[in-house]
Amino acid sequence: MPPSEPFPKGEKICVSQIQHFSVNDGEGIRSTVFLSGCPLRCRWCCNPETWTSTPKSGRLPGAKEETFGRFLSVAEVMKELVRHAIFYRESGGGVTWSGGEPFFFPGNLRALVRACADRGIPQAVETTCHFDWEECADIVGLLDFVFADIKHMDGGVHERLTGIGNERILSNLKRLGATGIDAVVRVPLLSGVNDDEQNVARTARFVREHFRRPKMELLPYHDFGRAKYRMLGMESFWTEFETPSKERVAFLEALIRSEGVEPVSYR
Q1: Residue 180: CATH number of its domain
Q2: Does 171 fall in a domain?
Q3: Which residues partner with 240 through β-bridges?
Q4: 123-127 vs 262-263, strand pairing mode
Q5: Which of 58, 114, 162, 228 has the smallest number of Cβ neighbours within 10 A?
């Protein structure tokens, strides 16, 4: 795991982007803050610029150079978020911490989450759940909602897909469920990789067993991030997958429902 101290030295946080008026990352109108740094290397990742904790620059042939990310203090992040507080209040929205992996630098996330909590801003997080629970439990306690991924229930397959096994992830999900916090378990759905009935049913049973209000969201694969790999000179990391059909997704949602889990969609 990375050090708990922010990078660099607690002064600035690498923020990949802040996306305002988002309606896909929780209830109501939200600002989604993409923090840089992630322990996983998912082969379908659409945000490779967030893998490390420094801004990244690149260009496509014939195009001007583009930089992803900037160093901001907590005060600078909050100044931008507070300007949108009226939209959060009127719509039942808030702030969603995303990435990368928001818990990758716990000190950074803790400072941001406490600042929002002090201002009464509702908060959600999108997480891989690969973090040190003891170090991050206090942060989880200040959140209102969690989107947590399960890429695959088989640890070996999970490691081949992401570079890391799923033992810590599943352990943290059990602890997360025990807190009673509102949560949705998301599955990034890859045709012929993790969309088989056995894996999806096994995931649903896990969610039903460990969450009081079990919900799952299936996220069909897309290749929206492909241009970023070209821009950043990272094409060797790119892997092409197939997108499950709408019919297949509907079938799997029915399967999830039959296992006692509510299928939901924020897309």
Answers
A1: 3.20.20.70
A2: yes
A3: none
A4: unpaired
A5: 114
Structure confidence by residue, pLDDT tens digits, 216-260:
999 999 988 888 998 998 888 888 999 999 999 999 999 999 999
Q: What is the pLDDT of residue 238?
A: 86
8 in a domain, yes or no? no
Reported as a pLDDT band with limits 50, 70 and 90, residue 21 is very high
CB distance 88 to 29 below 8 Å: yes
Residue 60 belongs to some domain of the structure:
yes
**pLDDT value, residue 59:** 84
**Domain presence at residue 59:** yes
Q: Is the entire prediction scored with pTM above 0.90?
A: yes
The DSSP bridge pattern shows strands 123-127 and 215-220 to be unpaired
* Spatial CA neighbour of 40 closest among 134, 135, 143, 169: 169
The answer to whether residue 7 scores a pLDDT higher than 60 is: no
Higher-scoring residue by pLDDT: 157, 226 = 157
Q: Structural domain tally of the chain? A: 1
